[in-house]
Amino acid sequence: MTMRTYRKALIGAALLVGTMMTPAFAQMKTITGGFDVGPGGLQGNFNPMTAPAGYTWLSTYFEPLVTYDAGLTKLVPALAASWEISQDKLSYTFKLAEESWHDGQKFTAADVKFTIELNKNPKTASLLSARLSAVDSVEVKDPRTVVVKLSRPDNALIVSLTKMMILPAHALAAIAPEDMAKNAMWSTKPIGTGPFKFVRYETDRFVELAANETYRGGKPKVDRLINRYFANAAAAISALRAGEIQFTYIESDDVPTFKGNKDYTIIEGASYVANYIGFNNQVPLWSDVRVRQAVMHAIDRNTIIDSLYKGAAKKADCGYVEGSLIPKGLDEYAYDPAKATRLLKEAGWDKINGTKPISWITYYNNPLTANVMAAVQSMLAQVGINVVPRALDSAGYNGIVMSRTPNPADFPLVYAGLQNGPDPGTLNLGLNESQIPPVGQNFLQIKIPALNAALNAAVAETDQAKATTKYQDVCAVMNKTLPWGTMWVANRYGVASVKLKDFVWTPAPGGGPFAATPEKWSIAP
Q1: How many domains would you assign to the chain?
Q2: 213/73 same-domain check
Q3: Which GO terms describe its cellular component (predicted)?
Q4: How would residue 323 be classed by pLDDT, with cut points 50, 70 and 90?
Q5: Within this chain, do residues 37 and 122 fall inside the same structural domain, yes or no?
């Protein structure tokens, strides 16, 4: 942290504490946390259509139709009280809950229709646009019933809808789709249906929410939720220890400092995120699969997991983490620098690039990732591949890789992660040629026909048992063709003050969303 950033953080904290110590605020029950600390970080304008992460916080005031339970094991109702899927898997009927928007207007089926059509429109820059491509029409049957009809079966649709926060038609309809992504409204007066409603955002300092006293799940047990922003996880941990916040994400190497401390509860779980070294397919460096294979054989993943992750990660040989989706017989790409050197020589690496520096960017800004990337850098250097790690903030990283006119030279190589959580269809977003931006998240411009075919077949399969087999095929193709160099799946951790009661946090991909029931959270004096 620079001295300027440190001073700014101190001033921001002092101003926030001053606000909180006013007589009116002192009487309120308030939970303060670092809800966006960690991978993904501060989203900036809180637009749920363009947010790749931060759902733990967004879902305290926005809500989807359906969501996952806190264990990420099954879908449960949110704004949809119930739903039915037709036998041919082409029609989804949602019966809606009784709820009002934070401004008092009634939530209706018209809002659902508006939201789906808005997210499907690529002009809005919605990350869900391509995921909704199978949606043919949305019909409002009555104020409490909406029917979504598909042009083809898509077993990933219902999971895509967990990421789609329902938006108010009456507040947004007048905004042109092309002006939606960066509209100031998202950070000044967003309107949702959740248990808390937006009060204010102090740029890069904190967001304040107030209890929605008419929420269908019951009046929240606290009056305010505060989400504070920190330059890094270390600053958030300091605030936690000082009693300024009651929760934050922590890195695995910080876990030992909290173990055995009766004042805190450590929350641990699988991240459901496969970290990978991403090869920009528009860059000729990686055209020969032997070069990609060489990268894999040059990296001693087991040593990195044991020494840097302290065992809190699991080696991955394709993008999936769920055991049922991983077939037998995968190439484990064992650490073998001699083989890596031989493959590079066969591919003509000296003529392709030699020892010229290759920029390697990431959005992970933490000491653990810096150490991991330095270790990989050293291992690759031993076989003649010279990579130069560069950490960016989330906005800077996304500005480069998700640009409508990306320059491949700016990101020939990335270190990133893609969530695949409870539903394997999510990987389709980052791997299928049909998902190349601006409609999807295949920013590495991956164009592998065999992979496209395997993904399309898996997503379209409506029989669960057959779908599992077809997702195994996807895994096998990934392992063979190496669109990414898949590294590992790490555990994630949160730490909460024992003063928090009925607090629910799950190390979910992108922060969820999941049924965290924030209206039930409370805090002891």
Answers
A1: 2
A2: yes
A3: ATP-binding cassette (ABC) transporter complex; outer membrane-bounded periplasmic space
A4: confident
A5: yes
Please give the Cα distance from 184 to 119 (Å, whole number).
18
Question: The CATH number of the domain where 397 resides is what?
Answer: 3.10.105.10
- The number of CA neighbours under 13 Å toward the Cβ of 13 is 20
Nearest residue to 163 via CA among 131, 133, 136, 189: 131
Please check the confidence at residue 519 and state whether its pLDDT lies above 50: yes
Name the packing angle between helices 289-298 and 367-381 (round to 10°).
110
Residue type, 85: I
CA distance 483 to 292: 8
Residues 321 and 467 in one domain: yes
- Residues 315/335, Cβ–Cβ less than 8 Å: no
Q: Which domain holds residue 400?
A: 271-491
Task: List the one residue out of 44, 412, 54 whose CA is nearest residue 249.
Answer: 54
Mean pLDDT computed over 399-425: 84
Q: Indicate whether 83 and 214 sit together in one domain.
A: yes
Residue 262 forms part of a structural domain:
no
Enter the pTM of the model: 0.83
> Could you give the dihedral angle defined by the CA atoms of residues 115, 116, 117 and 118, in that order, rounded to the nearest 10 degrees?
50
Check whether residue 184 and residue 315 sit in a common domain. no
Residue identified by tokens 């509860």 is 265
Contact yes or no for 12/358 (Cβ under 8 A): no
What one-character DSSP code corresponds to residue 64? B
In Å, how far are 72, 278, 365 from 412, measured between CA atoms?
A: 34, 8, 19
Lowest mean pLDDT among 49-53, 64-68, 120-124, 255-259: 49-53
pLDDT interval class at 104 (50, 70, 90): very high
Q: 10 Å Cβ neighbour count for 388?
A: 12
331 inside domain: yes
> Is the CB of residue 496 less than 8 Å from the CB of residue 503?
yes
Question: Which residue(s) pair with 101 in the sheet?
Answer: none
Higher pLDDT, 131 or 377: 377
What tokens were used for 377? 């850098």
Which pLDDT score, from 0 to 100, does residue 73 have?
86
The number of residues making up the chain comes to: 525
Say yes or no: 182 and 330 in one domain. Answer: no
Q: How far apart, in Å, are the Cα atoms of 512 and each of 40, 70, 81, 162, 460? A: 12, 9, 19, 9, 24
Q: Is 329 exposed, middle or buried (0-12, 13-18, 19+ CB in 10 A)?
A: exposed
Q: Hey, what are 524's tokens?
A: 């002891």
3-state secondary structure of 421: coil
Q: C-alpha 461: how far from its chain's center?
A: 25
Co-location of 105 and 141 in the same domain: yes
* Residue 484 shares a structural domain with residue 514: no
Q: How far apart are CA 12 and CA 445, in angstroms?
A: 41
CATH number at residue 22: 3.40.190.10
- Give residues with Cβ within 8 angstroms of 282, minimum separation 6: 408, 445
